[in-house]
Specification:
This protein is an alpha/beta fold. The chain has 2 domains: 202 residues, Rossmann fold, CATH 3.40.50; 181 residues, 3-Layer(aba) Sandwich (Rossmann fold). It is built from 15 helices and 12 strands. Strand 10, helix 11 and strand 11 form a beta-alpha-beta unit. The protein is globular. Bound molecules: uridine-5'-diphosphate. Uridine-5'-diphosphate (UDP) binds next to helix 3, strand 8 and helix 11.
């Protein structure tokens, strides 16, 4: 039994109605030779953050295609998640002061999980740095192991990367969300875009009444512009920067800002960052800081749909699934030109990119005074997501990888 709650299945014909019969036929053709062969996904959190979001939707779709895919989550204590969060920040380029104990904690936790998790599926996909050392448990004679990295590795801290590199190099393949994240590795590297499920509770169409009720519940005024960032309270998402940009815009437009986020079980910094955000908000009634439960897809969907503009002012970003979610909803997006964001936000075509608080404010002001351009960007954004960042394409890519890996063996 997998330990994670998998979302409900959505029949393939619902996807066919939205995406065309051909798209689904391709999925069926690729799935046929893989039926009955085991696939295991392992990551470090069951809820919160983009990886859990994707796996939560990938599994029901795989089940619809009769694939034997399961998902397990590694477990660790606070010491492990403190270490992996500092690895995460360091891999995104933050300073890191190595303590040999960190590496011991990391290795010991991976070893405990090696004893606990099933590592004998034909295809093992290990997500992100936290469980990377599980490769030490690869059975003799071998099954197929691939490492899926969701974070921006373009400027990693050398100490942390040199430590991880030794594990990653022993996988059969590595997958990254942007070409810039690839590393000098002796194994094949593939570009894998993250993806959203257009029919999930997070992204499907919503009744206007539900959206209105959600706004009323959080005391957000539906009659004035709403600027929204949905993100875990993480410094790399720069929620404080969002408030600073809002303050500049507020001099010209009577708008509101919504910062909504839950937490992820593998992120120990959330509570501290939330306090920093509340301090910065300083009681302004037009700054809505909303602490969401870790699993609140309908609320996120409603807040995104109610927004005039969606912001993603990250300082670093693996991909930023929230951007695709907003674009799918035809929202104009103002986002930082970091990590995987520019593949989603093509500047002046599917949204606007910015590089600073002032730049973010400038782009927001531009969109608020040009609603017709904002609407066009949203339309283009929806099309771009439909063509490139949907869960069906993602599963196709996985199935192609499985077939390629099993051919090579
Ligand atoms: N999310 C959510 N509730 C929150 C904050 C985020 O459901 O309170 C979702 C968000 O809608 C998206 C994912 O978590 O699906 C975040 O993925 P992203 O790639 O944007 O960032 P990550 O958290 O993985 O760095």
């Amino acid at each position: 039994m997998s330990e994670v709650a998998i979302a409900t299945r959505i029949p393939l014909h619902d996807y066919a109605a939205l995406l065309g019969e051909e798209e689904i036929d391709e999925l069926r053709v690729l799935a046929k030779p893989l039926r009955g062969r085991s696939i295991e996904m392992i990551n470090s959190t069951a809820v919160g953050g983009g990886v859990a979001e994707i796996l939560n939707r990938l599994l029901p779709l795989a089940e619809e295609l009769e694939l034997d895919m399961r998902w397990d989550v590694m477990t660790g204590g606070d010491d492990f998640y403190n270490v992996t969060k500092s690895f995460h920040n360091a891999l995104h380029g933050a300073p890191y002061h190595p303590d040999p104990k960190d590496f011991e904690i990391f290795l010991a936790c991976n070893e405990r999980n090696r004893a606990r998790l099933p590592l004998d599926a034909e295809f093992m996909i290990i997500h992100d740095p936290q469980p990377a050392a599980l490769i030490d448990g690869r059975p003799n004679g071998g099954n197929h192991w691939a490492w899926r990295c969701h974070i921006d590795l373009s400027h990693p801290n050398g100490v942390v990367w040199n430590f991880l590199d030794k594990f990653v190099a022993r996988y059969e393949a590595a997958m990254f969300s942007s070409p810039e994240f690839s590393r000098n590795l002796p194994i094949p590297q593939y570009l894998f875009y993250p993806a959203i499920d257009p029919l999930s509770e997070k992204n499907r169409d919503l009744d206007a009444n539900f959206i209105a009720q959600t706004l009323a519940h959080y005391r957000i005024d539906p009659h004035r512009p709403i600027l929204t960032q949905i993100s875990r309270f993480d410094r790399l998402k720069d929620p404080v920067g969002v408030i600073r940009a809002y303050r500049i815009v507020k001099r010209y437009f009577d708008c509101q800002v919504v910062l909504a986020g839950g937490s992820a079980s593998d992120d120990p910094e959330g509570a501290v960052v939330l306090q920093e955000v509340l301090r910065e908000a300083d009681g302004d009634p037009d700054i809505h800081v909303i602490e969401l439960p870790a699993w609140a897809p309908l609320e996120v969907n409603a807040l995104q749909r109610a927004s005039t503009i969606v912001i993603q002012k990250s300082l670093r970003e693996g991909f930023g699934l929230t951007v695709s979610e907003a674009l799918w909803k035809k929202k104009p997006v103002v986002a930082s030109a970091v990590g995987g964001i520019p593949v989603q936000v093509i500047h002046k075509h599917t949204g606007l990119l910015a590089h600073s608080v002032e730049g973010t404010a400038y782009q927001i002001r531009f969109l608020l005074s040009h609603p017709e351009i904002a609407a066009k960007l949203g339309e283009h954004g929806h099309k771009h997501v439909k063509e490139n960042f949907l869960i069906t394409q993602k599963l196709k890519r996985y199935m192609t990888l499985f077939l390629a890996m099993s051919r090579g063996s």
